[in-house]
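ok so i was messing around last nite and threw this chain in just to see what happens. nothing serious, just curious
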Amino acid sequence: MPQIAVVTPYYKEPDDILLQCHDSVLRQTIPCTHILVADGYPRPIFNNAPDLLHITLPRANADVGNTPRGIGGIAAESYGFDAVTYLDADNWYEPEHLANLWQAHQQSGHPLVTCKRRFYDPNGIPMPIVEFAEDANTHVDTSCWLIAHPAFSMLRAWLMPKPLSPVGDRIFFQKALHERFAIDMTNHRTVAFRTRYADHFRAANMPVPDDAKGNDTFDLPASYLRTPDGIVETIRALGFYPLL
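result:
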C-alpha cells in the first residue's frame, strides 16, 4: 500500500472544526498519516490522536498556512512518504478521496492529480454551486492536490514570499504548469470546502455574511509583483514570475 501524508496547517480554528477535519482523514478507505502543523498555537486535543504526526511551529507566520504547509510537506518527504496531499483545517474529505486520487495516479502515471470540491457555508450547510474556473480546470484549490514523489520539488513552492500568500493556491498551480509536470485533473468531488467567499453566497442565493471575502484578494499580491523587490524575491523563491 502507498504511504500517503495529509498535511494540515492550523491556527486558531475551533476544536470541533479541527476534529471534523482530522476524523475525515481517519475515515479514508486507504491508510494514510495526518501531519498536523500548528501555526504557533498547538492544540492539546491532538496529543494522543492515532495515525498522526503533530508539528508545532514556535510562532504564527501570518501567511494563510503557507509556511506550515511547506514544512509539513518537507517533513513528509523526509519520512519517506510516497505522496503528499493537503487538507485545510476548516475542510474535510469524503472517505474515498485518497483512494480515488491514488488510483488516478496509478492509472495515468502523472505525478500530480487533482479533484474538485463540494461547497458548504461556515456552518456546514451544503451550497448548490460549482466554481466555473475549477470546472474548467483553470483553478485548483489547495485541498484538491495529490503530489506523488516524482513531483516532490513542488512541496517547497509554498515557501513563497508572504505577500503572495492570499493567492497561494493560484501561484502553486502556476508553478506546476511552469515545471511542466503532467497533471491528471479528475472530476471527483471529494473535498468538502467551507467557503467564506461572497461570490459563492451570491451564486447560491444565500445571504452574504458580514465577514465574507470580497474580490480584493488579488490586490496586495498583484501590487507586490509590480515592485522591484517583489520581482526579485518571487523569482528567487519560485524560479519563475507568476501572472495575476
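not much to say yet. Strands lie at 4-10, 33-38, 52-56, 83-86, 92-93, 112-120, 126-127, 145-148, 183-194.
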